[in-house]
UniProtKB/TrEMBL annotation:
Superkingdom to which the source organism belongs: Bacteria
Gene Ontology MF term list: hydrolase activity
Protein keywords: Hydrolase
InterPro entries: HAD-like_hydrolase_sf, HAD-like_sf, HAD-SF_hydro_IA, HAD_2, HAD_sf, PGP-like_dom2
Upper taxonomic lineage: Bacteria, Bacillati, Bacillota, Negativicutes, Selenomonadales
SUPFAM superfamilies: HAD-like (SSF56784)
Pfam families attached to this UniProt entry: HAD_2 (PF13419)
Descriptive protein name: HAD family hydrolase
Length: 221
């Protein structure tokens, strides 16, 4: 059914909620003197940090983002890859199933937060916040990834965990799969709702069978 999978990162591949919210709480306490409850900051999950800070009325977002990234390092030990996702991602890569990433992280944040897990090499294309003028929920990041991959929307599905991911996919004409293991809103409008990462293999079952068939044919020659 689908030939190309595009993934969000935070809340989809890696669990960063505690780190993102905890470091933001510290930043806001330092910058404003206000103790923000975690539930009041959940809206920042899935959008670029600079956008989130503007919504929180932080004037110098560039400097604040630098401080936020520094505070985030104090929470690195709480960041983890969701169970079984590493194996699934590597398996898809081994079969040469096209995969990409569309994230609200900047390239530097990607280097700091995601690269340490060693999964970046298993994706064919990565679109960060620096790569587009507009960001999720706008379709531009997903459309950019489709352009790089020379993939059609009809053959592509975007896997994410937030309303921003859902809207970006819908606006790009791409089906949306909801990662239930990371979402805070299981009622989002999704073409497919994934209870477990292994269900990703069902999404590209036809493509996997095609690739495996080619491999078997080559071995039989």
């Amino acid at each position: 059914m689908y030939k190309y999978l595009i993934f969000d990162i935070d809340g989809t591949i890696i669990d960063t909620e505690k780190a993102v919210i905890g470091s933001l709480q510290k930043l806001l306490k330092v910058e404003t003197g206000i103790d923000y409850p975690a539930d009041e900051l959940s809206f920042v999950l899935g959008i670029p940090g600079s956008v989130a800070l503007r919504q929180l009325n932080i004037a110098d977002t560039d400097q604040a983002c630098l401080k936020w990234n520094e505070y985030l390092k104090e929470f690195y030990n709480s960041i983890r890859v969701f169970p079984d996702l590493e194996e699934i991602i590597k398996y898809l890569h081994d079969l040469k199933i096209k995969t990409g990433i569309v994230t609200s992280k900047t390239k530097q944040e990607l280097l700091d937060d995601f690269y340490p897990f060693g999964l970046h090499d298993y994706f064919d294309y990565i679109v960060c916040a620096d790569d587009t003028t507009k960001h999720k929920p706008d379709p531009e990041p997903i459309l950019k990834c489709l352009e790089l991959a020379q993939a059609s929307p009809a053959e592509t599905i975007y896997i994410g965990d937030t309303g921003y991911d859902m809207q970006s996919a819908h606006h790009a004409g791409v089906d949306f799969a909801l990662a239930l293991w990371g979402t805070k809103d299981p009622n989002l409008n999704a073409k497919i709702k994934l209870s477990h990462p292994k269900e990703l293999l069902d999404i590209v079952k036809t493509e996997i069978e095609r690739v495996e068939g080619q491999l078997n044919d080559s071995y039989g020659q």
